[in-house]
Design brief:
The chain has about 180 residues and is of the alpha/beta class. The chain has one domain: Spore Coat Polysaccharide Biosynthesis Protein SpsA, Chain A. It is built from 8 helices and 8 strands; from the N terminus they run ββαββαβαββααβααα. A hairpin with a 5-residue loop joins strand 6 and strand 7. Helix 2 packs antiparallel against helix 4. About 30% of the residues are buried.
Length: about 180
C-alpha cells in the first residue's frame, strides 16, 4: 500500500479503529503485533514486537507468549470484515473439541491463518520454527492438530468477505463495494 496499513480508511472510517472496537467487544484482552516504536499503540493497545524472526508468524508467537487465555484469536489489521458470529461459532467448537488451531479452508482450498484461533500449545512449535528460520505459517500448520472449518460453513457467516484483506490500492477500491456493517 505504500503506508502503514493501520492507517487504512474505508468509507471514511479507520479500519484499525473499527477492528479494535469489535475485538474489544468480543475479548477481554486485545494485543497488537507491530514493530512500531513505543510501548503502547493507537488507542492504548499493548504493542508486541518481534523478538525472533519476522512477519506474521513472529507476531503470532509474541501473541501466544503474552496471551492470558488458552486460545489466541488472530486477525490482521487489513481484514475489515471479521464476523462476531463466526468468532462465536469458533469459540463453540473450541469448547467441544480439542485442537491446536481452529481455522477455515477458503474457497480456493488454502487455509486462512488469520481470523483463526491458536492454542497456547502452539507456542513451542512456533518458536522452534522461527529459530530454524521457517517464517511461513503454513509450514507450522502441517505440524499441528487443526480443526478445519469448510467453505460451506464459512459462507453462512459472510464467506470470503471475512477473509478479504487489503494489500493493494485495487483491494481498497474493491472493499468499498463490500457492505461494511
Amino acid at each position: 500500500m505504500g503506508y502503514d496499513k493501520k492507517n487504512l480508511e474505508l468509507n471514511g472510517e479507520r479500519v484499525f479503529g473499527r477492528l479494535l472496537a469489535e475485538l474489544r467487544s468480543l475479548f477481554g484482552e486485545v494485543l497488537v503485533s507491530s514493530n512500531d516504536n513505543g510501548n503502547s499503540g493507537p488507542f492504548g493497545v499493548p504493542v508486541l514486537r518481534d523478538e525472533i524472526g519476522g512477519g506474521p508468524l513472529a507476531g503470532i508467537y509474541q501473541g501466544l507468549r503474552r496471551c492470558s487465555s488458552a486460545y489466541l484469536y488472530v486477525t490482521a489489521c487489513d481484514m475489515p470484515f471479521i464476523s462476531g458470529d463466526y468468532i462465536a461459532y469458533m469459540r463453540e467448537l473450541l469448547a467441544r473439541e480439542s485442537c491446536d488451531v481452529c481455522l477455515a479452508r477458503r474457497e480456493d482450498g488454502l487455509y486462512e491463518p488469520f481470523n483463526a484461533f491458536y492454542s497456547a500449545s502452539c507456542e513451542a512449535p512456533v518458536r522452534e520454527a522461527l529459530l530454524k528460520g521457517e517464517y511461513k505459517i503454513s509450514m507450522v500448520l502441517d505440524r499441528l492438530r487443526l480443526r478445519v472449518i469448510g467453505a460451506e460453513t464459512t459462507r453462512r457467516f459472510g464467506g470470503g468477505a471475512m477473509f478479504f484483506n487489503i494489500n493493494r490500492a485495487e483491494d481498497l477500491e474493491r472493499a468499498v463495494q463490500i457492505p461494511f456493517s
